[in-house]
Fold Protein-glutamate methylesterase/protein-glutamine glutaminase.
Amino acid sequence: MSVAFAGNSTTTGSREAGPLRVMIVDDSVVIRGLISRWIGAEHDMEVAASLRTGLEAVNQIERINPDVAVLDIEMPELDGISALPQLLAKKRDLVIIMASTLTRRNAEISFKALSLGAADYIPKPESTREASAADIFHHDLIQKIRHLGARLRRKAAVASPPLAPASPAPAPRSPVARPTAPVPAVPAASSGALTMRPFSPQAPKVLLIGSSTGGPQALMALVTELGPVIDRFPVLITQHMPPTFTTILAEHLARSSRKPAAEAVDGEPVKPGRIYLAPGGKHMRVVRSGADTVIALDDGPAVNFCKPAVDPLFTSAIDIWHGSILSVILTGMGSDGMRGGKDIVAAGGSVIAQDEASSVVWGMPGAAANAGICAAILPLNQIGAKVNRLFAGDRA
């Protein structure tokens, strides 16, 4: 059974105005009802349909024409991972957020869904009767719908810019849509909109990376290029992710980089040659223990609504490496990493941010860029090469 609201559209194009249309696909009537109420309370989104199976979603996608789909993994008739490619085949620009409970199997399926075109994932609480778990699910889901949906509309606006008078020669600095060929990172910086800093004159001795929405794909692409750095220097990563998911992400990072990668363990020494990933549900810091630098995990409150958070890692590293820190802030919602990045820059280190065009959500890197703390703002496919050059002795 489906319930549709706000007038079904008969076209498959994305709307550039009005509320985001959200299709909920879940075999749990409780979850469907909960998400429907949350969406109904938001001014900028509406429930386009509430469906029980992936098969219903595939059969009705063209009539419903949603902007965003919240897609359960385990459903009768057609499960989420099977429905995903069929939905994208019928509506290429559909934003799909996979929803699943925190099991290893579902976490593996969520990673597979990302490789098949899902925009993001969200863990469902084991029980909606747990107030804190339901509150986190509520907050995270609404934010993901809002930010991912907004990105969809920005892309649609760039693809279909307003009509302008014809000109025989293109303006060299036109702000309208750019060609698909590689472009310099964040063109706005060249016109003075963003303040850039010089790279630190100090040689980096550690690489710190923070990421969130879109981070798993970005991290797996980036680490494939960082072999020379990983061999000689420690690499520490905080990705906003729940437990179980970080375990699997570490395994994927190890395969992608062909280097040792694992969730960090409290008290273990930090050494070159391996990747340390903050485990889900714990903040990761670094501290001195005698002559060694070791991992310190803590179960304190969320920072920037996140646990693990990037800021605790960034700020703790200053006491160990001072100004010899290179930090990279990748795609993600919110502003986590910006305050820690400010502290790193104040101590003499450097910050690189991923550019907007290659980010799934330009929240975290955008906050750093707009705070004026970045020495470079680069497309994802240029960050690895730049990091390698900086660790090899480049200072510009």
